[in-house]
Amino acid sequence: xxxxxxxxxxxxxxxxxxxxxxxxxxxxxxxxxxxxxxxxxxxxxxxxxxxxxxxxxxxxxxxxxxxxxxxxxxxxxxxxxxxxxxxxxxxxxxxxxxxxxxxxxxxxxxxxxxxxxxxxxxxxxxxxxxxxxxxxxxxxxxxxxxxxxxxxxxxxxxxxxxxxxxxxxxxxxxxxxxxxxxxxxxxxxxxxxxxxxxxxxxxxxxxxxxxxxxxxxxxxxxxxx
Length: 225
What we know:
- By secondary structure, the protein is mostly helical.
- The chain has 2 domains: about 5-70, Winged helix-like DNA-binding domain superfamily/Winged helix DNA-binding domain (Arc Repressor Mutant, subunit A), CATH 1.10.10; about 75-225, GntR ligand-binding domain-like (Four Helix Bundle (Hemerythrin (Met), subunit A)), CATH 1.20.120.
- It is about 70% helix and about 5% strand.
- The chain is built from 9 helices and 3 strands.
- The longest helix has 27 residues, at about 200-225.
- It is globular.
- It starts with a helix and ends with a helix.
């Protein structure tokens, strides 16, 4: 059985590799070589392999037979499929959360939205502007809290995997949409959820994700030109 120290080291390496994949240190499609990763993260091959296997389960890297691991590539077709799947699954989870969520759930989503609304979306020292890491964390927490009341570990687990994959696309696109009212979109979803209007809440969530996907798709298309 692995020691507590070994498990902690594995968790630390996993977190570092995941942050580097999302942060752009490892580019889409890049092969992830064990020798370089072991040196970068000061870890053994077995620890790095376990970290990459977990990231493969989350859709951030892919495992290629007889070749190894690589950062997932980005394509318009994959983005569209991901968006469709995420909308289908998360609207189901949100509908169940609205049906089953209690006062604690309501308090959780209000608190998560408050933090998101009070967190600066863009960094001050980048040109062009870049979405801040603090906002990304608050954003993920808000969307996670919306679904948390569904009382289904399976739904929540799959939703988290899809959210990680979507975040990968969003972080790489880094397209700023000056006319978009993301704050208003989040508040509209929150208000519909608190009103227990499942039809309206799921429609607003669908529109929110589709709008993001359209922006990211434009960014991918521009990169290919």
